[in-house]
Amino acid sequence: RMLKNSDDLLIAESKASRDFLVNRMGYAAGKTKTIYNGVDIAGWPISKLDRQQKRLELRLEANELLIGTTGRLDEQKGHKFLIDAMARIKDQPARCVILGEGPARKLLEERIRKLRLEKQVLLLGECSDITSWLSAFDIFILPSLWEGLPNSLLEAMALGLPVIASSVDGVCEVIRDGQNGLLAAPKSSSALAQRLVELLRDPALRVRLGAGAKETVVDKFNLMGMIAAYEDAYASLAAP
Hints:
Blueprint: E1 10-12, H1 15-24, E2 32-34, H2 48-58, E3 65-70, H3 79-88, E4 94-99, H4 105-114, E5 121-125, H5 130-136, E6 139-142, H6 151-158, E7 163-166, E8 182-184, H7 189-200, H8 203-220, H9 223-238
Parallel strand pairs: 1-2, 3-4, 3-6, 4-5, 6-7, 7-8
């Protein structure tokens, strides 16, 4: 707080974060700039080999779809609402994996046991081969309660995955509902379940949203575009 007025430039990864910094934290609007995150896998294809291997590891049936998410196990990420949503769609041929580690693991494990979802929802911990898992997913879901602009969402979209995300903060700057993904109300397991059923029952919708997601990231959230924006920001700051 003592030093913030001495900043020459503050970069936020989304307009929502910039608004928070300016309107809530008191940073100077003229010194605060938005530069969207970019991911280096924009345009990459899904690995058929990785997909096959991961599905074999999980012993998925041919008709089972794999729902996945990545992120630390923390209240912010809203995993408990995803678990509750999975309990609502037990009749669907789908399983869910949650990649990541964190302080909420014990509570999430207890919730899974309470709802008898040990076979439907798997907590797989930290994984170094995230892109391999993304290749195995049929649907990526981000049930966060608040977010800036998560790279996990951009990476999933970059590979052409259909995504479902909570309608919070910077997420709404990326996802256009029904065009490149689906939005769901935060803190609502019923909303997540409804959107999941839409995708699980409609292969054509998954393909269309996945294509829209990939196009969005390639066009607007690629790594080189982000680097160029940072270079421009630094150059303008250094100019006499």
